[in-house]
Amino acid sequence: MAVLVISGSGRGVGKTAVGCGLMAALPELGWVGVKVSPHGHGKHGDGTGIKLALVYEGNSNSGANGLDRLKREAENSTCTDVPVWEEQDPMSSKDTGRYLMAGARRAFLVSGGADCLCGIRREAAESLLVESNRESLESLAGAHEALLRVAVLGGIVTEWKKSLWETVEQVDGVVLTGGFPVEQLPWELRRRRLFWMMPGEWISHELIKFVRGRLVDPIRAELH
Length: 224
Known about the structure:
It contains eight helices and nine strands. By secondary structure, the protein is α/β, with parallel strands linked by helices. The chain has a nine-stranded mixed beta sheet with strand order 3-4-5-2-6-1-7-8-9, with helices on both faces. 38% of the residues are buried.
């Protein structure tokens, strides 16, 4: 189907808010949302586990029955060092819960390596939204799939994450949040399609149109 990767300059710039806005605006893509983080969800402060389940581990090829078995084991496990979690609670305050509230069919947190994302990709036939700076488009998409990377930028340029610059050549569109001044944008990003947001804004008709044109229209053309 389609793969949308959302990268960002740092914490709090609005990567998740932009991603949720796009998923809500383009429900026809049947989104699966994935947040990539080196840190697992862990546990709440009261010691109770959040409603997540392990769905894939390593290079397992066990199929649906194996995935169901892993889910049941994880729900009864006190171990939090697992590479992939699936969100079960749309009311969760976690970013994965926000994905579900925005209309994602499934939502995952990945703290493992690239094999974990490949496992999700095999199981999820729908379109994929991945929130990550490091994942390359080529590692996520199959042949003939529509690809798009959007960078969400704000804050102080000298404090932007190093991981953002590692994939900057793949960026197709740039969302400037918090009223970030265009004149402060590095030259290598000014050549991309720019979307400027006022403070508190995370989505616009222009951004939706851009993403639809890159992801939805090619799919419709292929189907016809």
